[in-house]
């Protein structure tokens, strides 16, 4: 069963339950209200009669024998009852009916207002003549059947109103559920496009409330998935290119040496080139394996508190040989007391990749600065090279994206993966000293009283 049919069925069932319950309660209340209203009307009618008779006969008890003719003229069902004698003095009904009433009901009980006559019941109202010492009461009756007819007529009309309201509610429910389900059906169609990778054919679905939030999430998921698939496609294309180039070089020299087309000098040169290309292949493969581990195995990352000052000294010491070789000035400034919480080996590799990238592209200076800002540990690495374009900045952290003088195109991708695994992020912009500026944000280390770790002492 479709969702819209299920919603309509559930709403209709709920409506029937509510209407049935309400109808039963109203049906019961109607009869009670009719009985109370009938008692009130009988009391008003009786009081008028008693008041008239008291005035007409001047409260003369002997004259009450003369009221029979007057009461007989009234189109009412009534008794003139003498409480003192416990007898019916007069009734507008025949003697057999009076006797039946007298046998089945207790006329002396003032609390009983519903009397029985055969299988029928009557609503009664009692009005006492004044003075009360006379013991005379006028008892008026109305058959319950008359009230039940009114009750049934009222309920039939109420039922018609309920039916009209129910039909209107069901129709309204159909349109409302249709409005609710239609975006879901459209969303299902869009998800099929995602399944079939038809990202360019996707369109936005008009919706409101939680469905709009789901639609937004699906659309963002599709965009992310499209970008991921494109990046994977680009990755495989670049990876195949990066691996194919050294393999073709190795193959060319190997075939030349095998066929003897090289002399001794060229053969030696070819072997050196082959060894170089093999080492290059090993470096690419190792970095690809590292990236795969960073993406798939969080257990490979073991964070520990580190003193930032000693950690940066390690970076500077590792970069010292290449700095001297390139004739570059490497400056560093670390705020006192800063503690990093990261995997030492991996963060060291990430920062060295960024520093080496800055050294390759700088003219004379590379600066490293560590400080805290907004409860974050900030690490800036900037150079005075030619800077970076906006287009390159969007893709510089992608795999196998190499800038000028780049090596494998994996160094910055590895750095980003390590930094994100540490709960941080990295961005690039143009530096005030002319080159590129890489900014790393890491969470500030928060030690707890119950689990306090001392910063790891790094070798100086």
Automatic annotation (TrEMBL):
Which SUPFAM superfamilies does this entry report, sorted A to Z? ATPase domain of HSP90 chaperone/DNA topoisomerase II/histidine kinase, Homodimeric domain of signal transducing histidine kinase
Annotated Gene3D superfamilies: 1.10.287.130, 6.10.340.10, Histidine kinase-like ATPase, C-terminal domain
Where does it reside? Cell membrane
Cited InterPro entries: HAMP_dom, HATPase_C_sf, HATPase_dom, His_kinase_dom, HisK_dim/P_dom, HisK_dim/P_sf, HssS/ArlS-like, Sig_transdc_His_kin-like_C
* Name of the top EC class for this enzyme: transferase
Q: Which GO terms describe its cellular component?
A: plasma membrane
Q: How does it sit in the membrane?
A: Multi-pass membrane protein
UniProt KW keywords: ATP-binding, Cell membrane, Kinase, Membrane, Nucleotide-binding, Phosphoprotein, Transferase, Transmembrane, Transmembrane helix, Two-component regulatory system
Spell out the molecular function terms from Gene Ontology.
Answer: ATP binding; phosphorelay sensor kinase activity
Task: List the catalysed reactions.
Answer: ATP + protein L-histidine = ADP + protein N-phospho-L-histidine
* Short name of one Pfam family: HisKA
Cytoplasm among keywords: no
| Primary location group | membrane
Which positions fall inside the Histidine kinase domain? 238-446
Record-annotated membrane-spanning stretches: 12-35, 154-176
List residues of the HAMP domain: 178-230
Q: EC no.?
A: 2.7.13.3
Q: What is this protein called?
A: histidine kinase
Q: From which source organism is this entry?
A: Oceanobacillus iheyensis (strain DSM 14371 / CIP 107618 / JCM 11309 / KCTC 3954 / HTE831)
